[in-house]
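Take a sample.
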Amino acid sequence: MSDRPTDDRPDPDHRRPAGVDDATVEALGSFSEALEAIEVARGHLYTFHRLSGTADLTLGKAVDQLREAGHTELADLVDRELVGRNVLQGRWTFQVVEEYDDGYYATFRRLEAEARERLVDGRRHLYEAEMKEDRRTRGVPGHEATPPDV
């Protein structure tokens, strides 16, 4: 037997607490949207980290191949000046990622969670949940408020 509520409403974690106004839900929706952009930026930073590491390892291979092809002077120059070089002053990409994660990213996530905790009992995605309620067609398959097991 399904536990689906007969009124086909969102689960309580996606319902606005009593007394919370539209402006607060909209502000938290914008905060959440900004956090989503930060998550994408963080993903790109990790992509940068991975690609930079791959490039350095592949460059090492190119240096070896230049040496094998008899271009020792050029291979030595590239090896000395570029292989293993910092991407930023004093930093390889893992250090950039760590600094971002421990500083800006951690602060952003902490403050977004604190805002939700203070204003809506920690509930997430209220703006989106309310948008779903406005846009879905009740009673039509594929438009249910929650999965069957909720």
User: Anything to note?
Assistant: The chain has a mean pLDDT of 94. The first helix runs from residue 22 to 68.
